[in-house]
Amino acid sequence: METVKLARNFDLIGGSLIAGDSTKMRAQNSKKNNYNQKKIDRHLKYIERKLEEYRKALADNDGDKDDLENEVRKQQGRRKNYLKLEKQLKESGQTQISASDPESRHMIIRNNITEVAYNVQATVDDKHNLPIDYKVTNNNDSKAMGNMLRRSKSILRSNQFTALYDKGYHTGSELAIADSLRINTLVAIPTLPVSSNAPNPDYNVEHFIYDSENDTYLCPQGHILKSNGYWHSAKNSSGEISYRFKNYTTKRCKTCPVKGMCTRSLVNGKQVRRSEFNDNIENNKRRVQQSEKLYKRRQAIVEHPFGTIKRQWGFNYIVTKKGMQRANADVGFMMIAYNLRRMINILGIERLREYLASLLAVFMRIRHYYKLKKSSWSYLVNKTKKQTPILLLPVNKLYLILNRVYGSTF
To answer: Is 342 contained in some domain?
Structure first.
């Protein structure tokens, strides 16, 4: 965003601490016009049942024949539409499709409330709660952090910053990306499900000691768990491989006196699963434990723009439709408006006006010079991009935006 460059000029971007999160924005597509295979099957089953009823009535001459034939044609037309949707769904390779806005997805907004929406990822700098990046997606948060960190590194031109994320981003492969970028990333650690806990918490996997040299685990009872070296694959709901893992077991489980406290699987005994990203997960856990106070600042940083845009301004939905690219542009206008209003509140409207006016004057002089030289504005745009200060090109647009927001007094 050009407003980020403007904010950096006034030293409003700290670049040492950022926070990332997402928010759902309702798309211009009702739940009625969103389909998955289960929903299509339910409709087709209903249509077949109705067709059977009408055919039986026609065979028995029970009722007006013309009306029944019209109903048959109506249901056959509906079936044709649902078969077409089913074909589109299979060809897309997705688990759902939307009829009005094809790239929007049915998502959980909060608790059990769902909507057809887009998921907007945002990265916010802590110095003045200014968003430095955003991206509209139609996926959940689990695979979003790595890409957003790469983008933040490019925007800030450094990896010497700390990034804060909530537990929705706690994915081994994404933590591995953060480590490869050498960015100090703190992601909240999700609570283990009850099924993953031992009957006695003292025998949870966290109390098993891993020996990296011998690739073994030592249990609290002093038994060694080994792996056969085979890598298993864990798959997500779409059937794609999420990560690989090894299983570690020991025959001593069969005769162990605390077996009932250690595992719920009394037949096979204790089985410890180690992910290929386990080192990255442990590194994150250590960082979070060492910086608990720092992590607590995450929500106050990243929720500020979301709270203003959605609750104060009422922009909790995407205005445009027909695709993610248009939705991305829509959210971009929201972010530009937020950053401009935020900078005006910090700097004062007069200071920003004077700065943009001076830039505009320089911009117009350069434009006039090249018009005289080549009588073509395209010469400046195409030939001198590298020589022209980067803020000069969009400043006239920013000036016009501010004039429209605040009137001619700006």
So the answer is: no
80 three-class SS: helix
Both tokens assigned to 318: 């995407």
Residue 264 CA from chain centroid, whole number: 35
Q: Is the pLDDT of residue 391 over 70?
A: no
Question: To which residue do tokens 């200071």 refer?
Answer: 351
Paired strand residues for 97: 35
Tokens of 162: 């700390």
pLDDT > 60? residue 191: yes
Instruction: For CA atoms 394, 398, 333, 135, give the dihedral sign.
Output: positive
Does any domain span residue 153?
Answer: yes
Which tokens sit at 36?
């998955």
DSSP 249: B
Residue 279 confidence class, pLDDT cut points 50, 70, 90? very high
Q: What residue numbers bound the domain in which 84 lies?
A: 31-98
Report which DSSP code applies to 309: I
Query: Mean of the per-residue pLDDT values for the chain?
Result: 86
At 404, the pLDDT band (50, 70, 90 cuts) reads low
339 found inside a domain: no
Domain-embedded: residue 217:
yes
E strand segments, 283-355: none
Domains contained in the chain, number:
4
For 135-195, give the secondary structure using H, E and C: EEECCCHHHCHHHHHHHHHHHHCCCCCEEEECHHHCCHHHHHHHHHCCCEEEECCCCCCHH
Q: Are residues 312 and 183 in the same domain?
A: yes
Instruction: Mark whether 122 and 199 lie in a shared domain.
Output: no
Q: How far apart are CA 338 and CA 345, in angstroms?
A: 11
Query: Picking from 3-12, 56-65, 303-312, 353-362, which range would have the lowest pLDDT averaged per residue?
Result: 56-65
- Strands 17-26, 162-165: pairing is parallel
51 in helix, strand or coil?
helix
- Write out the DSSP string of 304-353: HHHIIIIIIS---B-S--SSHHHHHHHHHHHHHHHHHHHHHHHH-HHHHH
